[in-house]
Each structure stands twice: as C-alpha cells, then as structure tokens.
Amino acid sequence: MSEQDKVFIFDTTLRDGEQSPGATMSHAEKLEIAGLLDEMGVDIIEAGFPIASEGDFAAVKAISEQAKNSVICGLARANFKDIDRCWEAVKHAKRPRIHTFIGTSPLHRAIPNLNMDEMADRIHETVTHARNLCDNVQWSPMDATRTEEDYLCRTVEIAIKAGATTINIPDTVGYTAPRESAALIQMLLERVPGADEIIFATHCHNDLGMATANSLAAVEAGARQIECTINGLGERAGNTALEEVVMALKVRNDIMPYQTGIDSTKLMNISRRVASVSGFAVQFNKAIVGKNAFAHESGIHQDGMLKNAETFEIMRPEDVGLQATNIVLGKHSGRAALRSKLAELGYELGDNQLKDVFVRFKTLADQKKEVYDDDLIALMQSGDAEA
Ligand code: KIV
Ligand code: ZN
C-alpha cells in the first residue's frame, strides 16, 4: 500500500478523554497509558494541555521524555503564552508536535469577542509563532462543522500558509452527520490552496452516536488522521472510539482500503487499563471491547458458533486480544452449548444423561441471569448424589 493509504491514529485519551468530568488520572497512570499507546502503534499521542496546570505540564513533559516511537503532542490555545508553555513540555520528545486551536464558528467567535478579520490575524500570528518553535504544527478551527464554509476555507488557508502541517477539522459538539462530514473534507480539499500538501484530520464527538461513522466518512473523503480515544472516553457522550475505527478499517478493508499502524491485539488490555484508571467502566455491549462483544447466550447462536465461528462473529476474539469467544450459559442456551461446556469441565455425557441434566439446567437458568462453571459442577454433583 502507498503512504497515501495510511491513516494516522491520533489518540487524545490523555487530553480530550481526561476532560470527562471525573476521569482525572494520576501522573503515573498517564505515563502507563502513554507507554501502552506507544507500544500499540499509535502515531500521535496528545498527552495533555500543558498550560492547564502544573500537573498537566509535568505529565506532558514526562511522556515526551519516555516516548519511543509516537509523536507527542500538546494542546495550546491561540496565544503565545500557551504555545510557549506547550513547547517547553513537548520539546523533550524525539518527535514533538504543537497543536493550537481557536473556535471559528459564530458562537465561538463571540467568546473572545474577535471579528472575522481580527481572528484571521490571530491565527496567522499564532501558527507562525508555533511553527518557529516546532516543525510539526497542528491547527484546529474548533466547532468547524458549524463554521461558515467561506470563513472556514479562509482560516484553513491562513493556517497552512503560516506553516501548519496538519489541519484538524473538529466536530466539537457531535452535530455533523456522515454525508456532511465527508462533504466538508472534500470541499476543503477542493477549495483551499495548499490543501494537498498537508494532512487533514477528523476529530468527532459522539453526541448523536455518529462519531465513528463521521470519522470513517471523513477518511473516505480524504482525511488521513483520525482523532480518537480509548473506549471513546471524552466529555459528554465522548469522542470517536479508537478501537472502533481501527477494527472497522481492518474488518472492512475490502471497502475502506486504508491501513493503520495499530497492533489490534493490544486493544482489550488498554481498554481495561483506561477503564480502571479513569474509573469509567465500559458498557457491556460496547463494540469491540465490551464484555459481551464476543459473548453468546442464545441456543441458535451458540450452536452456530460451535460449528463455525464465522456464523455469528465478524472478527476473531484473538484479533482484539481476547483468548476466546465467551459462550455464556443462561436460559436461552441449548443442549449443544451445555454439552460442550460440560465436556470442558470434564463431564462427557451420553444423550440420556444430557437430557436429564438439561432439564435441571433450565430450571436453574430460569432463576439466574448467568449459569457459571461452579453452578454446573454443583448441578452435576447434586445429580450424582440423587443417583
Ligand atoms: O472538540 C474539539 O473541538 C477539541 C479541540 C480542542 C480540537 O477538542
Ligand atoms: Zn474534542
């Protein structure tokens, strides 16, 4: 595959993810997560917002010193003080990046009370300043998806001319839909001079549950960097989930022929670590990393799975770092699954014996959400006692 087909994965678990109320991580936890992201093949790690606090600065600096392969990025608002502080933290990395942003939509322009021309000047000055410090500069027009198209094109052109090497297009409030997400990237690529010389990134929030779809639509239109977080951690409904875009690009490579550098077998472990250190449990039915993502309870599904796993699974559990599919025994399970589970536990049953155990199993399953191995052993032992 050519370099053009590579999609860079930019992880912002430690910056946008940590902005979720209550998700604060300790210094040591951030270093651990950054180490796992680096090992997993994340191209760019947004390690924090150095001006935000002494703790954030120290974490970004330490992650910069520790990083082996990933580019380490820090966030800075559009002013020299933020950008200088960010550079002080990331300059220790082998491959540093400064990410600076300003809100360009009418609602966001009203906050610093800048008119369009004043904001354009601010973008020119701040991106130029960042580029004088660092070769690798990312610029984001916050709330891009609610910014007037002409003004968005104007500001993106200014940032590119001032030296930005990546232009990130945030859907800050999770408002866009897949078709619009694609059209926006396509429009920018067509209209902005110099757009073909930089990388466009997509940064989606999940307020309407469309972050993954919007990110993939942007890639199909020409974006080559996806910004995301582990488990979709992030403010409100969160950010695009890293594990979802990575596995979607892997499993549906037939229709989305782009590659990432992520070792997907490390997804489950990092998901669990992020859930544990952030205190944000992963919902059971979460795609890819949820407890039930590779679990089957119904008899029809279990029977199909025991014959051929592809009947009800589109990816192998091993591909995301799980050992095996989880056949969960409950009231919807059938004889085939019960027989297979009992065999695993060392009980080989004939047809008549199975018939009897199956009746007792169903009575038990009606009383319990899930029948565990210990329950089955007790069931077998009580059968022995009765015999
Ligand atoms: O959602 C957003 O707009 C952001 C920016 C700071 C890039 O996180
Ligand atoms: Zn964001």
Automatic annotation (TrEMBL):
What class does this enzyme belong to in the EC scheme? transferase
The signal peptide annotation in the UniProt record is none
Cofactor requirement: Mn(2+)
Q: Name one GO biological process term.
A: L-leucine biosynthetic process
Determine the domain of life of the protein's source. Bacteria
User: Where does this protein hold Mn(2+)?
Assistant: D16, H203, H205, N239
**Which pathway, metabolic or otherwise, does it act in?**
Amino-acid biosynthesis; L-leucine biosynthesis; L-leucine from 3-methyl-2-oxobutanoate: step 1/4
GO CC annotation? cytosol
Q: Which UniProt keywords apply?
A: Amino-acid biosynthesis, Branched-chain amino acid biosynthesis, Cytoplasm, Leucine biosynthesis, Manganese, Metal-binding, Transferase
Assigned EC number = 2.3.3.13
UniProt key word RNA-binding:
no
Q: Which GO terms describe its molecular function?
A: 2-isopropylmalate synthase activity; acetyl-CoA C-acetyltransferase activity; manganese ion binding
Catalysed reactions, as listed in the record: 3-methyl-2-oxobutanoate + acetyl-CoA + H2O = (2S)-2-isopropylmalate + CoA + H(+)
Which stretches make up the Pyruvate carboxyltransferase domain? Answer: 7-268
The protein's assembly and partners:
Homodimer.
What does the record give as the function of this protein?
Catalyzes the condensation of the acetyl group of acetyl-CoA with 3-methyl-2-oxobutanoate (2-ketoisovalerate) to form 3-carboxy-3-hydroxy-4-methylpentanoate (2-isopropylmalate).
Concerning its family, UniProt says: Belongs to the alpha-IPM synthase/homocitrate synthase family. LeuA type 1 subfamily.
State the name under which the record lists this protein: 2-isopropylmalate synthase
Q: Which organism is it from?
A: Litoreibacter halocynthiae
Gene name as annotated: leuA
